[in-house]
Write a structure and sequence with these properties.
34% of the residues lie in helices and 22% in strands. By secondary structure, it is of the alpha+beta class. Helix 3 links the parallel strand 3 and strand 4. The radius of gyration is 24 Å and the shape is elongated. Bound molecules: zinc ion.
């Protein structure tokens, strides 16, 4: 089994072939979910999977499932996948790698007539990016029960087009009830979209966790007054308060190093005039940590910091607008990825995903883990997103061996 290896040139050529569908001038891809281009790449993918002997099914959310039979059809398929949709200025690898590496796994098994005990399945999840229809990871979320199907169907893009109508229009509103399909285990191969693997010259990231995220919107109200005539002791400067909270957010993240991050990324100062003491500031806070208990303590520390500022004659309104719980990936799946990585002789490190992925939702309904490979400069969601063919091949080989080990030879 250990001399089983994917065809690196075929994988690269396949990625480059689909990169033509929605190709941008700068060499990226613009292939927004449920557009004609999304329909084209789906048709291409389904056709290649059928040619490779797979049965292709589409569910009510347009998720595409390609199954290569195993010896025991009663076993739930060992599954991999990701997404073929992109950002408006997307790259050639984000999501696409995880789907096409799955196709490459099937082709490799076919090349040598390799039979697995459980079936092998490759999935294209609809609308991972959330760029045209928010929120992101919509269809894997419905599959895992995080959203209802009808909530998803009623999402609208900026032109008012409805998700369900666009799904039907491109021919991918399937019959199969979403969420009913069994998954024995799920592996998602993805570019890291961050700088760590490249900086440390590691080929494989063994993803153990995905960060929990809490997003807040804060409005701090003080009192506007004259910058020249108001003594320092009588000021209620909302910007100064917001600045103190921003410093506290930084301190909260650093106090929970190395895995915590905290960001104040947006601030609106009112009235925003050079000689008026700011009366009101609206700002956002983004806290992330892979352990929900730690994230909860960071949340408490944030509340304390805001309350301290608010005692200085200011009023704070805080709204938590989003809470995405941390994900601890399945120990058995992580072990399968680790073994495949070590057997392959690849340099590696354990890593936490800072971004959301379909795997984060699938983890709620099936044993799941992820494999990361480096991307150039850690840049993603950008047309210049790039990766090395040999790194992608290494990731696909780890995927292949983890899946085969799990499916049973
Ligand atoms: Zn992605």
């Amino acid at each position: 089994m250990h001399n089983l290896a994917i065809n690196a040139e075929r994988l690269w050529a396949t990625i480059m072939e689909t990169a033509e569908i929605g190709r941008t001038e700068k060499g990226g891809i613009k292939r927004l979910t449920l557009t004609d281009l999304d329909g084209r790449v789906r048709d291409w993918f389904a056709a290649r999977c059928r040619e490779a002997g797979c049965t292709v099914t589409v569910d009510e959310m347009g998720n595409i499932f390609a199954v290569r039979p195993g010896r025991n059809p009663d076993l739930a398929p060992i599954t991999c996948g990701s997404h073929l949709d992109t950002q408006p200025t997307g790259g050639k690898f984000d999501g696409i790698l995880g789907v096409l590496a799955g196709l490459e796994v099937v082709r490799t098994l076919n090349d040598v007539g390799f039979e697995t005990e459980a079936p092998i399945m490759v999935v294209d999840w609809t609308n991972e990016e959330g760029s045209r229809f928010a929120p992101a990871m919509l269809a894997s979320g419905v599959f895992a029960g995080a959203f209802t199907r009808d909530f998803a169907y009623d999402r609208r893009d900026r032109e008012g087009a409805r998700f369900a109508d666009e799904l039907a229009r491109i021919g991918y509103r399937g019959e199969e009830r979403v969420g009913t399909r069994k998954i024995g285990a799920f592996f998602e191969l993805h570019i890291e979209q961050g700088p760590i693997l490249e900086a440390e010259e590691k080929t494989i990231g063994i993803v153990t966790d995905a960060q929990g995220q809490r997003w807040y919107e804060v409005t701090l109200t003080g009192r506007e007054s004259h910058a020249g005539t108001t003594p320092m002791s009588l000021r209620r400067d909302a910007l100064l308060g917001a600045a103190r909270i921003a410093v506290a957010v930084d301190a909260i993240a650093r106090a929970n190093a190395p895995l915590a991050v905290g960001t104040v990324g947006l601030m609106e100062v009112r009235p925003n005039s050079r000689n008026v003491i700011p009366g009101e500031v609206f700002f956002t806070v983004d806290l992330r940590h892979p352990d929900d208990a730690v994230l909860k303590s960071m949340d408490a520390a944030l509340s304390t910091a805001i309350a301290e500022v608010a005692t200085a004659g200011m009023e704070a309104r805080v709204e938590e607008i989003w809470h995405f719980p941390a994900v601890r990936f399945d120990a058995g799946c992580v072990a399968a990825v680790r073994k495949a990585t070590e057997d392959g002789g690849y340099s590696h490190r354990d890593i936490v995903s800072g971004a959301g992925h379909d795997a984060c939702y699938v983890a709620r309904v099936a044993p799941t883990s992820m494999i990361f490979v480096p991307c150039e400069g850690g840049i993603s969601h950008n047309e210049i997103e790039n990766a090395k063919p040999e790194d992608l091949a290494a990731g696909a080989n780890v995927l292949l061996h983890a899946m085969v080990a799990r499916a049973g030879a």
